[in-house]
Amino acid sequence: MNSDMESFTGDLSRMWKLQERPPLNHLTWDWWWWLLMLDDEDGNPSGKQLMVLWSTKDNSKVIVSDTVWEPKGRPGFDDESGIALDGMVCAWWYDGKRMHEPLIKRKCRIITMDDTHSKWPEVSEDSGRGGGAVVPLLDDDLSMGLKSDLSEFWLNLTSDKQPIPGMVPQSMKFQITPWNDAMSTARHATATYAMNMGYDILRLHGCKVEGSLDNQHVKGTAYFQKVCVQAPSVPWYWGVLHLADGSYIDWFLPHLSFTITARDNRPWKKRDLSHISLSQGGLFHDAKNNRSEKFTNVQIEKEISNRSEGKHGHHPDAPLPCFIIKMWNENTTISIRVDAVDRAHWTFEQPTRGGLTSHFTYNEYPLETKYLKIEDETGVRTHKDYSWIRGNAEHSWGLLH
Questions:
Q1: Which CATH class, in words, describes the domain spanning 232-401?
Q2: Domains of the chain by residue range
Q3: Per-residue 3-state assignment (H helix, E strand, C coil) for 76-122
Q4: CA-based Rg of the chain, rounded to a whole angstrom?
Q5: Is the separation of the CB atoms in 112 and 133 below 8 Å?
Q6: Residue 202 in 3-state DSSP?
Q7: Tell me: the pLDDT tens digits for 318-368?
Q8: CA count, 13 A, side-chain hemisphere, 204
Q9: What pTM was estimated for this model as a whole?
Q10: How far apart are CA 193 and CA 253, in angstroms?
Q11: Quick one: pLDDT band at residue 273, thresholds 50, 70, 90?
Q12: Of 398, 320, 391, nearest to 45 (Cα)?
């Protein structure tokens, strides 16, 4: 796995496009999503973490964590494929000790375009390779984009006013560069179901990050995905780990369980006992063996850990989860235990038929890796073989439709 990449590779042409499949009212949901995992000066194993997304939804009204959002129509396109849309920018920040949510929650108009557009500030011989930007039309800079030579993303944020001044950085600026071939090659996944339902996902599994929190220099790693979902949102488990040697592990398990009937964001409901997987997927970019492995056998258990939400949380003293993951194929078996160190969450209420409202809660957890075991034909590796492992996990419940 080459670690000396000068530019991102893969099919980046989809990065700045929307509506590549006919949109569906109430169901189409598009977003760009970055997760940054940064070094912590106090040595916190989970590091500091930042999540930010730019989103639009084909719906006349959605309540996002108590904020009423009424998107005004579908995205509009000009003659050069520039797009204007009604959207939201949302972010949370974990400072290594506690979660700050929301760091950002703003409704705004958003412009997205690639670098061949006449409004792009500088035309070069590299234009048309995949460069472009997402730019909210706000006084503050909440933009992200990719340079025309594909060498670097930028990500700029300005925090919302917080209840306690000085608790979070006011300005965040990052430069995001390639890590290695396996992780920094754009990968596209798609599926189409009945009635034009389906999804499209463009991912960068891993990148290097440097930047500033106000005047403090920081560095770390990042994960990116651009997603279009055109289907009811069902519960899922998802997680990602970045390892010090440039390896990568993820898991994804959409499922059915009694939590599909959940109507609020309260954790640890009595119905949160078991699940039936709709599909199982895992991926391991193995830097040691210079190969990538897929897994279709994935088991996930959620248990109560010895940590709990702090007084700043929405449910103080509620237990935080640990996730026990096992995935295997004909060559390799990976066993993992990760503990959530804090919780961020977003709630969505969407009017549906007959005057009813559908509910969805989406939880994100910075992780501490307590146990990792990788067994393959070359031997056994454990978490002790890596100077650091950082990750994040998701668990959702409810049904948004």
A1: mainly beta
A2: 1-231, 232-401
A3: EECCCCCEEEEEEEEEEEECCCCEEEEEEEEEEEEEEEECCCCCCCC
A4: 20
A5: yes
A6: strand
A7: 999 999 999 999 999 999 999 999 999 998 888 876 667 777 888 999 999
A8: 32
A9: 0.95
A10: 18
A11: low
A12: 391
